[in-house]
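Hi! If you just cloned this repository, the fastest way to understand the data is to look at a raw example. We've pasted two of them here, unedited. The first protein comes first, obviously.
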Amino acid sequence: MHACCAPCSVACIQALRDGGIEPTVYWSNPNVHPFTEYRARRNALREYTASIGAALAEDDVYGLRPFVRAVAEDIDGRCRYCYTLRIGNTARYAAEHGFTHFTSTLLISPYQDHALICEIAEKAAAEHGVEFLYRDFRPLFRQGNQKARELGLYMQKYCGCIFSEEDRYHKKRKTNEE
């Protein structure tokens, strides 16, 4: 299971476990910037998975320059590239390590493009010969965030890329100006 962060992982891992699936959590998030944010999210996921006895595999690549180069000409369309990169890495990892299925914690967020994630995941599944395990985790979003707060997990304030951080501050400024 691709994990974008520890807070989003909480309810997803529990739901899978409740369904008889013991996920291996996979960190592949070269989209997260700046490095201090990348490190905070990665370390929180390491601590959380260790605390619940979940296996964690890491593609520990901080990819600022490659990510920015890839999205520079279409910043507004960056999410497609970002989902393709992370979901593709997950499907490839699953295939290379003998897993039959993969999924992502991205499917818990009401702020992500759910349909686009599913479209990209189906393509990655076909490309790598593994199945995409679809779960609509969104109904568990608030519950998972509440549990993450209770556990004292690091809670990020934006999706991950530097442009989503900019969007966050731009929206905040607009609200304060109104």
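Ok, and the second one:
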Amino acid sequence: MKKLFCIALACSFVLILASCGKIETPVASTDPTEIVTTTEVITTTETLDTTAIEESTTEEIAEETTIEETTTLPGETTTIGETEVATTTTATLKIPSTVAEIVTYYNDAANKVKNAKPGYSFTEQTNINSIFGGAQWLVNIVNRAITDETPQAATIAKGANHNDFAVPGKDWASKLNASAVQSATCTEKGGVYEIRINMKREVKPDLPRNVEDHQHGRAFKVYNAGMIYGVMAGYENLGAITKFAPTYRDCYIVCTIDKTTGDMKTAQYYLTFDAEIEGRLVSAIPIRASASISVTGKYVF
């Protein structure tokens, strides 16, 4: 009995050892699940390689775009790889569009006239459109003062004194403020910009001692206190003018400016104002009158 038990036990050990030997022996797997897993790994690897290629291509395109957008001055060269390519840059002129831009552009061109002294021909016409009240002698004296103080035509040579252009007696031709402008336009016409500046209405209680005290006096040739109040010199036996209060209305400037050089080519100034005039006779009798006056000045450079 014991002998049979020993034989059975020995057989069991043999079977166990045989089973362990099978586990240690590698056998190629035929499990479908393992094949799918291997395929997925290969697919993932190919996708990553494609992405890397696409990113590299994108970087190369970006680098090429940067080279194309680089601007250089005329006569310079741009190096692309080992090749030098000549490039040029075309300047783009910006047309003034806002009121502030147009006024600044006009001021620069007008002031350039006094500095560059290009020479010009000039005509001016003064009209007293209406007179109400007062004495005719007063009207005549005012008209005479205006005519005597304002040349009706002139030709100024290149390089000569341009002191009388636009605003007489100043070393500048315009200090116009955009806040005094009702509207402004700038239109391109061939090689020039045509500018029109319409002024706001301005009411003043008296003539300016300094023309800069009136907004219109910063761009137009306005009557000043010395011109009017001093007109009675030699006529003291008749009386005096004691007040001349202007209301500027419907005034505007039209000019053309070379769009390449900024040089003014033509300029026209239309100044219209109503004036409340007061004076007195030697008998101390007060007199009052109102007048509508317009002045047109034209310049060709």
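That's it. A detail worth noticing about the second one: Residues 1-78, 87-91 have pLDDT under 50 and may be disordered.
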